[in-house]
Amino acid sequence: MDLTGIEAWHVWIALGLFLAGLELLVPGVYFVWLAIAALATGVLVFAAEPDLVMQIVSFVFLALIAVFSAKRFLRDSPIKSSDPLLNNRMGRLVGQTATVTQPIMNGSGRVKQGDSEWLASGPDLDKGAHVRITGNEGGTMLVEPLTLIEDEGTLPAGPA
User: Fold this and answer.
1) pLDDT of residue 3
2) 96 domain residue, yes or no
3) Which residue range is the domain that position 71 belongs to?
């Protein structure tokens, strides 16, 4: 196929580069596998010069092979994050302390942690009580009363 000096492999390589560039703009990992298939088809067309039907068939098969190979590879060896709680704000707060701003009655109330106020679930507590965040269920923090051991972390009482 010759369109005014443009060879078929030029089109496949350009399509592969376009799809690779599109991958940078679109969230997720979708177009990279199609880009790999298009680039591989471009190399195949450069080497063997098959007709248009065979080019399309090879692109489809290479795309399927790339997608399913990547799916299997990522399933068997998932990418481990250096910060697994990066997008889990409530997960980051587990272990932190908060102050009850609306009494927890019948297992429901509100707490303030930092500059944010959250729905809370836990035992009945009065306003102003300090709690420890133990987890979350959806958008509700799970809390427990914060109990401090008497005189822990303070200087021992000296003679009066």
Assistant:
1) 55
2) yes
3) 2-76
